[in-house]
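Request: Show me your protein:
***
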Amino acid sequence: MKTQGVKFAESRKKIDEIVKMIYSLLQNQKFKDFMIKLLLILSFMGATFGGCHYLNQKAGLPDDNVIEELIEELIESKTGLEIDLTPGDDF
């Protein structure tokens, strides 16, 4: 049976390996470029959906919009999960 010290040392070694992998990944310029692009795309999508939600509320229209419906269909076709991205929907 392993002692607590041995278990801790093994856990610490695994954590150190994971940290080294993450650090080397963060040093990769292609990964940095990818993450910046991803964050920009997600920010744009959030602003678009938020703007649509606000305008729909002000105009008294339903929240479902074409972009949102297309993304829902894409997610369902790729994963099989049926989700609703409409802001303000109760689960």
Summary: The chain has three helices and no strands. The chain has one domain: 4-79. The chain has a mean pLDDT of 82.
